[in-house]
Design a protein that fits this description.
By secondary structure, the protein is mostly helical. About 85% of the residues lie in helices and about 0% in strands. The protein contains two helices and no strands. Helix 1 crosses helix 2.
Length: about 70
């Protein structure tokens, strides 16, 4: 396999991982914050989603940094 193909494959795998992470965050935040889906989010729901997303990203970053520092 040539190097440019390997690089493209790695980029596509990374893109897929990011998309899966976004999907997971979206599902977790929506399930936690929106009990009854309506036409639009309330300010309380929007705040909850923002806080849940921030917490998830901070936790993921913390874990990733800890794992990398062990290697």
């Amino acid at each position: 396999i040539d190097e440019s193909f390997q690089q493209a494959l790695m980029q596509e795998q990374q893109r897929a991982m990011v998309m899966e992470a976004v999907r997971k965050i979206t599902n977790v935040a929506f399930d936690k914050c929106v009990q009854k889906p309506e036409g639009s989010l309330t300010s309380r729901q929007a705040t909850c989603i923002a806080q849940t997303t921030t917490s998830y990203l901070e936790s993921s970053s913390f874990i990733a940094n800890k794992m990398m520092s062990r290697n």
